[in-house]
Design brief:
The chain is mainly alpha-helical. The chain has two domains: 6-180, no CATH class; 184-270 and 352-467, no CATH class. It is built from 17 helices and no strands. The protein has helices at residues 6-19, 24-43, 47-66, 70-104, 122-138, 147-155, 168-176, 183-216, 223-254, 272-278, 281-292, 302-320, 324-343, 360-381, 385-398, 414-423, 438-455. It starts with 5 loop residues before the first helix and ends in a 13-residue tail after the last helix.
Length: 468
């Protein structure tokens, strides 16, 4: 079920009404049932994976907490969660990669892939439940005794299929305490959902038309067309994924839950490291805590610290997709962050929120960081490494031999987005701090709804990160 679909428009008020009609224990039953219906709307057969992951990690948490064969139960959790990812997401990629290697070595290898369908959101909910057993093992959280609360924590429908990837320390206790309806919290949740829907339907879906047209056949596009398409994709994927996160966070507030912020105006970053503190925060911090720090973080020799950064980012690239383009994308960002750590570790020590850019040099750093991020997006968006190199070559050679041309009117959605986000850069979302009178606020809401009606795409476009 998509947030930007008519079934969800019917689903949400029904669940909301049923949820607030009962006390905490029954509320958790309502949420769990609603979450399974929400996920089963895509394919009910994959519900078994969520149930299996939840059951294994609940039992593993109990055993680890009691001290009985702690390593064995942690291994069981890792095996089930990472094993599911390996089979459903990476098995075909592994077969294809092995065949390509054998052909390179001169062998005639043409093995058949299995054509496995990747369950929606598997990368998100497996990381969320896996972090629970890891934290119990490390003594950071206590294993819960309430299976209903735990199963609802794993399957919580607002953030089930595309995050934010929550930690048990933050989200699980919210299922264990009584929740009382808060009108102010719910109102702000609706505002955030409206803002997220605006990002998705008006900004992302229109920019997708520009990016898709050029990247579908990059050999038929010139440098300026591909450059504009790359900029379009940069804001498309941001508006798409941040839009989903805003809708998820706002939806959770309707039920009395607080989810972590997932995006913090990342395109106002002044360095690669700052970008990754602002982009997909729940995933960035997950890899920091469960990959980078266990490898030694920056508490080791400089060369080893750089290696740790590269391993972390390449792993993040693989998390995003089973393909060499994602590996290169992750490695590229890892290289940028590692170089910054060595050459300019304090480049972004001052927070951006609450102040203006103080110099042309700082503005230049912001623009340079955005362009470097766009180089990475080329690999992320391209269908193959060959296409990615073609796009980069065409842009680097074409924009210096011709005047700018071919800009789509859809790109006009970008400046208003930047202005709005700069104005609200120290707020959790674009509609968080609406001053003025009530008529002014409702006028803005009406304008947003009008924009959805006039400029939103007619077809329901899936969220980009559903494929991960």
């Amino acid at each position: 079920m998509l947030f930007n679909s008519y079934p969800f428009l019917l689903f949400l008020p029904i669940v909301f009404a049923a949820y607030w009609a009962f006390g905490r224990r029954t509320q958790n039953v309502v949420l769990l049932a609603a979450s399974y219906v929400f996920y089963g709307f895509w394919d009910w057969r994959f519900l078994g994976l969520i149930v299996l992951s939840s059951l294994v990690d609940f039992v593993a948490g109990q055993a680890i907490q009691s001290g009985r064969r702690r390593r064995m139960w942690l291994g069981a959790s890792l095996l089930v969660n990472l094993g599911a990812l390996a089979v459903f997401k990476y098995l075909d990629f592994g077969i294809e990669s092995l065949a390509a290697l054998l052909r390179t070595l001169g062998f005639d290898a043409h093995p058949a892939t299995l054509g496995i369908v990747v369950p929606v959101g598997i990368s998100f909910y497996t990381f969320q439940t896996l972090s629970y057993t890891l934290d119990v093992y490390r003594g950071r959280v206590r294993a819960t005794q309430d299976p209903l609360a735990f199963f609802a924590f794993v399957a919580f429908f607002p953030q089930l299929v595309a995050g934010p990837i929550e930690r048990a320390k933050n989200l699980l206790p919210q299922f264990l305490r009584d929740r009382v309806f808060d009108p102010e919290l719910a109102t702000d949740g609706c505002r955030q959902m409206l803002y997220g829907l605006l990002l998705k339907v008006v900004v992302a879906d229109n920019l997708a038309l520009v990016a898709d047209a050029a990247y579908q056949a990059p050999d038929q596009a010139d440098g300026w067309t591909l450059l504009f398409a790359t900029w379009a994709f940069a804001f498309q994927i941001y508006a798409d994924f941040a839009g989903y996160s805003h809708i998820a966070i706002g939806c959770a507030r309707l039920f009395g839950f607080s989810l972590m912020r997932n995006f913090a105006t990342p395109y106002f970053s002044r360095s690669p490291a700052e970008f990754w503190r602002r982009w997909h925060i729940s995933l960035s911090t997950w890899f920091r805590d469960y990959v980078y720090i266990p490898l030694g973080g920056n508490r080791v020799a400089p060369l080893r610290a750089s290696f740790n950064v590269l391993v972390t980012f390449v792993s993040s690239g693989l998390w995003h997709g089973a393909g060499l383009t994602f590996v290169v994308w992750g490695g590229f960002h890892g290289l940028l962050v590692a170089l910054q750590a060595r050459l300019a570790p304090d480049a972004d020590e001052r927070p951006l929120e609450g102040r203006t850019l103080t110099s042309p040099r700082e503005l230049g750093r912001l623009i340079l960081t955005f362009q470097l991020v766009c180089v990475g997006w080329v690999f992320f968006r391209a269908k193959s490494l060959a296409d990615a190199w073609l796009v980069l070559r065409t842009i680097s050679s074409g924009i210096f031999t011709a005047l700018p041309h071919g800009a789509s009117p859809a790109l006009l959605v970008i400046p208003p987005l930047l202005v709005l986000e700069w104005w609200q850069r120290d707020a959790p979302h674009g509609f968080a701090r609406l001053g003025g009178t009530r008529p002014a606020r409702w006028g803005l809401y009406a304008t947003a709804l009008l924009a959805l009606a006039l400029f939103g795409q007619v077809q329901t476009v899936p969220f980009v990160y559903f494929q991960f």
